[in-house]
Amino acid sequence: MDLSNQYNKIAKEFSRVHDIGENSNRENRKVFYSNLDFIKPGIKLLDLACGDGLDLAYYKSLGAEIYGLDASEEFVASAKEKLPKSDIRVGLFKNLPFENNFFDVVLSKYAIQTSHDLNPVFSEIHRVLKSGGIMMYLVTHPFRQYFEKRDVKADYFEQKVVEPRILNNSIIVQEPTHTMNEYLNEFLFKNFDIQFFQEYWDTAAEQIDGRKYPGYFILKAKKR
Ligand SMILES: C[S@@+](CC[C@H](N)C(=O)[O-])C[C@H]1O[C@@H](n2cnc3c(N)ncnc32)[C@H](O)[C@@H]1O
Prior knowledge:
This protein is α/β, with parallel strands linked by helices and 224 residues long. Helices cover 30% and strands 26% of the residues. The termini are far apart. 35% of the residues are buried. It binds S-adenosylmethionine (SAM). S-adenosylmethionine is lined by residues 3, 7, 18, 49, 51, 54-55, 70-72, 75, 92-93, 109-111, 114-115. This is Methyltransferase type 11 domain-containing protein.
């Protein structure tokens, strides 16, 4: 699975639907935005997987000094079109092109789950955050990924690549599955203080077999 190819292919359609109409991501964006009271004017903020820059524009309107990073050249091009003066780069989470202790805040929405191994991602976020800095992310819930294995005998603990249908079935992507323990891991407890954890139903996510289950969770933690 080549990340930049996968997201280059869906970039146009994603940008077309994610903020308008019944297929949009508006509901979870509203939830994420309602937990951002720690964004103060002048802080250095990184959006990991900034997509087309819609969220970056909002963080900028709150007064943050914004930086963006995304694997997809197409997404970065449209983010740069919206925010021509901002520092928005093509890159991968496992090797962030930023100095140690640089950011006050690192945010990420619906993207961290795309890495097969989450440990390098969390250690990079930790490296670029200042001490006392905030990491807050929204990721696909492992419970949802379990259903996305689409097999009644599926093994929760075995990593598989699944094909979630996102934005009300309008787009299909490929993502590796994760367990909850891969997020709530030793590294997190050792290096961060968790300040917020909440599970949510995603109105725009496919509900397999008509069940109701959490589509994503949000975790906020402060670097020690
Ligand atoms: C579903 S989109 C979400 C975009 C944006 N965060 C939002 O909420 O609108 C996922 C984005 O994550 C990016 N992405 C996924 N895995 C990545 C990785 N390992 N490194 C950098 N970007 C990644 C993709 O290129 C894509 O733009």
